[in-house]
Design goal:
850 residues, mainly alpha, 3-stranded mixed β-sheet, 3 strands, 2% strand, disordered C terminus, DUF6604
């Protein structure tokens, strides 16, 4: 079921009409009218919805008369919800009453009569809207139609954006026209004196199909962004998988409330609405004579596509093929050659259907095969899981049709580069194999008592799975056994299903990040060198150093956590924060910094719990459980609040969609409700900003830091022996190398001040006296990271290869275009008609007649 805090179109429509009715009653009462005398209302009590009050529609005009006569003002927020309610009702009336034939009197006395009453009420009340609102509209210049962009339209459209289904708009806050709140549990049902020609359940079904098609448009636009290199495959896949899950919950939510007499099962929502539209258009839905191989009249393909009837019909045709102990692999060209030379939207209806039929039949055999081999998969996306369920139940539902239609939409968008997400996954797998193999070698070379054996086993398991499932197609032998003589393509399911490829890459990269950060936190390989690197950068006798990977690491993580409140300036401050980072008691640290003589072995004894760093991919990690580990988990309020809280505290994460985030943030704070598209837009926009952080190679940096410590130990061995004796290096505790360097530098600084008390005052950072140890350590870093060593920016170079976003600067028109898209999808369900604006702004999307 759809989570309570997410509102679909029908929920919003009911909330809008309810809110307008509340305002009418409350305002008329405040004007002195006795509502009970105006009309008799019948109240009932519903366990599910609370108190339901039935109001005759003709009472609206009476209430409006009272309000207009009293001169009460219509709040902009109430005007907006009424306009939105009229718009969606009108959209339904146009689609099922006024397409291709005259509107008859009976129709006028049904849904259109209800619309007429609402429009009349709005027209009479419109003149009472605050004067300031009208002035602002007159002052706004009107651009020509061809010059108007979404960026120009959105600010005006959002001016009256309703933030609350039940409360006031922030634009109206503090004004005297705000009505008194009415108890939330009171729900009004409007009763028309004319019986509707179509029952309300058909309007509910229309709202559901409209929402599902809006999700389809959003998903197609998401993969267009991937195709254009704006977002990565992981972001596109996670967003799409989330949208498919929300689509299923919309279907379940609607079907649980719809009249079963009109729609006995969810599939009938698709087929009945398709046939009804054909009937009203006076067009036969049966195949026309002379057209062989058509399961329905392809002249109605657009209608069938919108109602998901095409997908339903294709799936139903496959069910009889599913037989026990048999895998029905499809031979391409079975129904004739398919011409894919033209873009999908430029093909004829016959060409579109032939292409879709071949694509569907080709992939369905893969789902049957997965059922037969007991789910041998790294993970399953929502579409794969759902279609496997259909192969077991042999029953087609609206959710199955929605899933397979999404599958078709993505393929048609990506064509002819449908395998691009799999190629990304392949590159990630090769990278993962290299890093995991390296990590296993480091575990053996630098044993650590605090590294659990279970983690080594986890590394080996992920490496084995990567090699067996992502670098080698383990299914080919099984497929040849089940269908001998058939030519099986390697990784066919991954190549055909971009969502599965992207989700698998997402899960693999999160595992790599987790292993890399665990290794860094266990060995403390990066933190000591960060403290040393920071100190050397501030030392006047050390030439400029440039370790780009460390700079990027610090950019991705909180400097205040690494440096205990902020970057230190001098030797003493650096050494103090270095010891505190290792968890040493503050009193002990104070004694050491103040010159108390302490054996180096004592330092190991007082080490407490060193600080650790956490992943900075907060959004990716938060959605990982819901999307991968427990795919059926719904979006919880806790997850949404965590995401919004993170975005509010991390301004950089919202730099590409600031306006969209503010819209979302205001609405959530006011109502604790969102629309599905608002949630999905936030997920997509901000997951993409985390992509470079998720792809950062922590394992590689861990390896290079350990390698540097070894080189530094050899380079400074004579000095280490001089200060600490020949047994200073025990059990290959490589990070302690930095401790020896910084301790020697501190002691050298104190010795200089003792020997030359009348010498020049030290610099504020106490680095003025110099240190041989620091100078030689700086030489080693410079050699390691320079062109000769070449180890200073390997992680950065990897990101330039693997990341879609790293290195790109979003500014100027491109940044504005991206922000306009984010705002569009965030506000679409609240302020604009999705289809008209989608056709206008995104020419590549399919235009829809509804």
């Amino acid at each position: 079921m759809l989570p309570p805090f997410l509102k679909n179109s029908y929920h919003r429509y009911k909330a809008d009409t309810n809110r307008f009715t509340e305002w009418l009653i409350e305002t008329a009462t405040s004007c002195g009218a006795k509502v009970d005398d105006l009309f008799k209302s019948e109240s009932t009590l519903s366990k599910k919805s609370g108190k339901i009050t039935k109001i005759p529609l003709k009472g609206y005009a009476t209430l409006v008369d009272v309000i207009v006569k009293a001169g009460a003002k219509l709040p902009k927020s109430i005007k907006f919800v009424l306009e939105r309610a009229i718009a969606i009702r009108k959209k339904f009336a146009v689609a099922f009453r006024m397409s291709g034939h005259e509107v008859n009197e009976k129709a006028d006395k049904g849904h259109l009569h209800f619309i007429t009453v609402l429009e009349s009420a709005l027209e009479r009340l419109r003149s009472s809207v605050g004067a300031a609102s009208e002035v602002s509209k007159k002052q706004a210049p009107k651009a020509k139609k061809e010059e108007v962009s979404i960026g120009q339209q959105i600010p005006d459209l959002l001016e009256n954006l309703v933030l609350d289904d039940d409360g006031p708009n922030v634009q109206d806050a503090g004004k005297n026209d705000k009505p008194k709140p009415v108890a939330r549990e009171v729900i009004f049902e409007i009763e028309d004196e004319y019986e509707l020609e179509l029952p309300e359940s058909f309007f509910i079904a229309f709202c559901l199909l409209s929402d599902l098609n809006t999700l389809r448009d959003f998903i197609k636009e998401t993969w267009i962004e991937y195709k254009e290199g704006i977002i990565d495959a992981m972001t596109a896949a996670v967003t799409t998988n989330s949208a498919v899950i929300l689509g299923k919950e919309m279907i379940d939510d609607t079907f649980s409330n719809i009249d079963r007499a009109d729609f006995p099962d969810s599939k009938s929502i698709s087929t009945t609405m398709y046939k009804l539209r054909c009937l009203l258009d006076n067009v036969s839905f049966n195949p026309l004579r002379g057209r062989r191989g058509e399961p329905f009249n392809l002249d109605t393909l657009e209608t069938a596509d919108w109602t998901l009837a095409t997908a339903t019909i294709l799936l139903e045709s496959f069910i009889p093929v599913v037989q026990p102990n048999h895998c029905p692999f499809y031979r391409k060209g079975h129904f004739g050659a398919v011409d894919t030379s033209k873009p999908y939207n430029q093909r004829s209806n016959q060409e579109k259907f032939n292409s879709d039929r071949e694509t569907v039949l080709d992939i369905l055999g893969e789902f049957v095969f997965l059922v037969r081999v007991k789910n041998v998969l790294w993970l399953k996306d929502e579409i794969t899981e759902t279609m496997m369920g259909m192969m077991v139940s042999k029953k087609v539902t609206l959710h199955h049709a929605f899933c397979i239609q999404i599958f078709l939409d993505i393929g048609n968008v990506l064509e002819p580069k449908k395998v691009a997400p799999f190629n990304d996954l392949r590159m990630t797998s090769l990278r993962a194999k290299k890093n995991l193999t390296s990590l296993l070698g480091l575990i053996k070379k630098y044993p650590c008592s605090s590294w659990p054996k279970s983690m080594t086993e986890a590394v080996q398991q992920i490496l084995d799975l990567t090699e067996s499932q992502l670098l080698k197609d383990i299914w080919i032998p099984l497929k040849k056994k089940s269908a001998p003589g058939f030519k099986h393509a390697e990784f066919h399911l991954f190549k055909e299903n971009p969502i599965l490829a992207g989700l698998t890459m997402y899960d693999l990269n999160l595992n790599l990040q987790d292993l890399g950060l665990t290794a860094i936190n266990t060995w403390k390989s990066v933190f000591p060198i960060l403290h040393l690197y920071n100190l050397l950068e501030r030392s006047p006798e050390v030439p400029t150093l440039d370790w780009k990977d460390l700079d990027l690491f610090l950019k991705f993580h909180d400097e205040k956590s690494v440096f205990i409140g902020g970057r230190p300036e001098g030797i003493e401050d650096s050494f103090k924060k270095f010891l505190l980072f290792w968890g040493m008691p503050a009193t002990f640290v104070s004694q050491v910094v103040n010159g108390a003589k302490t054996e180096n072995t004592r330092f190991r004894q007082v080490v407490g719990t060193p600080r650790a760093i956490a992943p900075t991919t907060v959004l990716a990690t938060a959605f990982h459980v819901a999307m991968v580990e427990d795919r059926k988990a719904s979006f919880s309020i806790a997850i949404v609040e965590k995401v919004l809280e993170y975005l509010e505290t991390e301004p950089d994460s919202t730099s590409s969609n600031t306006n969209a985030f503010h819209i979302l943030q205001r609405k959530w704070k006011s109502t604790k409700t969102l629309t599905p598209l608002q949630l999905l837009t936030t997920l997509r926009s901000n997951l993409s900003t985390e992509e470079p952080r998720l792809l950062f190679n922590y394992i590689g940096l861990h390896e290079r830091c350990l390698e540097f410590y070894e080189k530094a130990r050899v380079h400074l061995h004579d000095k280490f022996v001089q200060y600490n004796g020949p047994n200073y290096h025990k059990e290959k505790e490589t990070p302690y190398i930095v401790f020896y360097i910084m301790h020697a530098a501190l002691m050298s600084s104190k010795a200089h001040r003792t020997m030359f008390p009348k010498g020049p005052s030290p610099s504020p950072s106490d680095l003025g006296f110099g240190s041989v140890m620091l100078r030689r350590a700086g030489e080693q870093i410079r050699e390691y990271t320079s062109d000769k060593g070449g180890k200073g920016e390997i992680a950065c170079k990897e990101l330039r290869v693997f990341s879609k976003l790293y290195g790109k600067v979003s500014e100027g028109l491109e940044a504005k275009k991206k922000e306009d898209k984010d705002v569009y999808w965030t506000a679409i369900e609240d302020v604009v008609d999705p289809n008209a604006l989608a056709m206008y702004q995104f020419g590549q999307l399919d235009g829809r007649i509804w």
